[in-house]
Amino acid sequence: MTVKTFTRIAAAFTLAFVVSIPLSFVVVGLGGTFGYTNYVRTMPVLILGADWLLGRLRPFKEQ
Q1: Residue 42 belongs to domain spanning
Q2: Scanning 12, 29, 34, 49, which has its CA 20 to 30 A from the CA of 2?
């Protein structure tokens, strides 16, 4: 695994984690319970979304 790949994975995970924290408060505020199961189900979607967004903002070039 190259450094760029690791950086991309770490950046996507960090962005997804940062987005998931306020998202959980919003869902709880709307009356739902954002439990651990829903958190685990949502994280892969957020990570893939963050990876896609980071790729659109600054494309990573693999060598």
Answers
A1: 21-58
A2: 49
- For the entire predicted model, the pTM comes to 0.50
**Is 54 a member of any domain?**
yes
User: What are the tens digits of pLDDT across the range 14-41?
Assistant: 888 887 777 766 666 555 555 556 666 7
List b or e across 37-57, with b for residues whose CB sees 16 or more CB atoms inside 10 angstroms: eeeeebeeebbeebbeebeee
Q: Cβ(56)–Cβ(8) under 8 Å?
A: no
Residue pair 53/15 in contact by the 8 Å Cβ criterion? yes
31 within a domain of the structure (yes/no): yes
Tell me whether residue 5 is in a domain. Answer: no
Tens of pLDDT, residue by residue over 7-21, are 888 888 888 888 777
Task: Look up residue 25 and give its two tokens.
Answer: 């408060």
